[in-house]
Design a protein that fits this description.
The chain is of the alpha+beta class. The chain is built from three helices and ten strands, in the order H-H-E-E-E-E-E-E-E-E-E-E-H. It is elongated, with a radius of gyration of 39 Å. This is Protein Mis18-alpha.
Length: about 200
């Protein structure tokens, strides 16, 4: 009898070990499959609006983003709003001995602050700066659309559940209103008929 019990115990131990190794934690699977996607959704910010750092007037947004120039502390936009005035006077900008450029100023229409510049003429190594609006990071500010977290509680009458009793009451009220309108119309007709008779007798 003892020799028969040993294989059974070994088989049972092997089965238990097999299930222990192959058991899967559902929370780990959810984190593996959905955790990364959730983080990506949370990190996906809305459009950014760029505003004048002094008067807070909107001057552009990230939908027209064209890059940044870290060495010049600038961002580049393909388009700006009408709140930005493009200067008419061209002046000389010498970044270094081999990078002399001609630029015009970008000015805020409201407070006339200097916001940045447009490169009208550049050496070949700076051609990527032309035909873009280069805004100085020190002169602007920004905010993300939809980033506000404060909300007001919704106010208003609570919705009435449509039950048979509620429907019956509504239909009864409509019927009474209809009868009232009909009786008023009949009364008006009687008054008009009486007035006509009085006019004819006169």
């Amino acid at each position: 009898m003892a020799t028969k019990e040993k294989p059974t115990r070994r088989l049972q131990i092997n089965i238990n070990k097999t299930f222990e190794v192959s058991s899967i934690d559902s929370s780990a699977v959810e984190e593996k499959l959905f955790g990364r996607a959730d983080k990506e959704v949370e990190d996906d910010d809305g459009p950014v609006v760029f505003i004048c750092g002094k008067c807070r007037l909107p001057i552009g947004d990230s939908m027209s983003w064209d890059g940044s120039e870290d060495d010049q502390n600038q961002i580049k936009l393909k388009r700006v709003t009408n709140n930005v005035i493009i200067g008419k006077d061209t002046h000389f900008l010498e970044m270094n001995k081999q990078s002399a450029c001609l630029v015009v100023d970008l000015i805020c229409r409201s407070c006339y602050s200097l916001l940045g510049m447009v490169y009208t003429s550049t050496p070949r190594n700076l051609d990527h700066k032309r035909s873009t609006f280069c805004l100085s990071v020190a002169s602007i500010d920004s905010y993300v659309l939809g980033s506000g977290g404060q909300m007001l509680a919704a106010e208003g009458p609570k919705e009435q559940l449509v039950t048979l009793e509620y429907r019956h009451n509504v239909e009864q009220q409509l019927a009474e209103m209809k009868m009232l309108v009909v009786s008023m119309a009949q009364r008006l007709e009687e008054i008009e008929a009486g007035l006509k008779e009085e006019c004819d007798e006169a």
